[in-house]
Every structure is written in structure tokens, then in C-alpha cells.
């Protein structure tokens, strides 16, 4: 069974994605920030990571950089609702750093589930 790691500081969104991916047949781990995610990845490696970009402690851009260094073959999907700059700019940066797909919040659950399935089938 493929494992997905969902990283988001928003409890409701994190839990919704966990339910969505679990119902899609995946093993799902969750983390509230990049620090927690990197610890989880070391213990129970995920095949695919879905990360928010704006979070406390270790935010998503830093997290993507660390994943690229430590786990170069990890598949990454980035999501953002924006912050000090528009979401599109954060997502473009994430893509330049190695995110394979990006989603602006709010997104359609069917679209992100389809993206996960597509990337894990490659």
C-alpha cells in the first residue's frame, strides 16, 4: 500500500485530506509542520508528500528543500492559500524547487485525489 504524508497546520484540512486519501486506498500519515514531517519521514517513509506552504516552525518551502536534499526521489505536491504574496507566487516557487503538482486553496478534492493517483502510478 502506498503511503502519503500530509503536512498542514490547519487541523480541519489535514484531517479531511487524511480521510480522502484513506478512502482512496492509501496509508496516510499527517504532520502539523515541516519539522514533524521530516521526523515522520525518517521513521515511516512516504511515497508522496502533500504539503502546505505557509506553516509555523518549518514552513513548506523549507520543507520541500529539505525533502529534496534528504529524500530526492520523494514525490511532492504543494498547496497554498497565499500569505504575504499571492498563492500563485508561492506555488511557482514550490514547483521550481521540485513540487510535481501544485494546488491553490480552496481546491476540489477530486482533483487532488486524481493527481495523487496519477503521480503514484508513474
Overall 3D form: globular
CATH class: Alpha Beta
Q: What are the secondary-structure elements, in order, as H or E?
A: EHEHEHEHEH
Q: How many domains is the backbone divided into?
A: 1
Structural class: alpha/beta
Largest sheet: 5 strands, parallel
Mean pLDDT: 96
Number of helices: 5
Low-confidence spans: none
User: How would you classify the quaternary structure?
Assistant: single chain
Beta strand count: 5
Question: Could you provide a short overview of the structure?
Answer:
By secondary structure, the chain is of the alpha/beta class. The protein has helices at 11-23, 34-43, 60-70, 87-96, 109-121, and strands at residues 3-7, 27-31, 48-52, 75-80, 101-104.
Describe the 3D structure.
The structure is a single chain. This protein is an alpha/beta fold. The chain has a single domain (3-121), classed as Response regulator (Rossmann fold). Helices cover 47% and strands 20% of the residues. It has 5 helices and 5 strands. Strands 2-1-3-4-5 form a 5-stranded parallel beta sheet, with helices on both faces. Strand 3 (48-52), helix 3 and strand 4 (75-80) form a beta-alpha-beta unit. The protein is globular, with a radius of gyration of 13 Å. The model has no long low-confidence stretch (mean pLDDT 96).
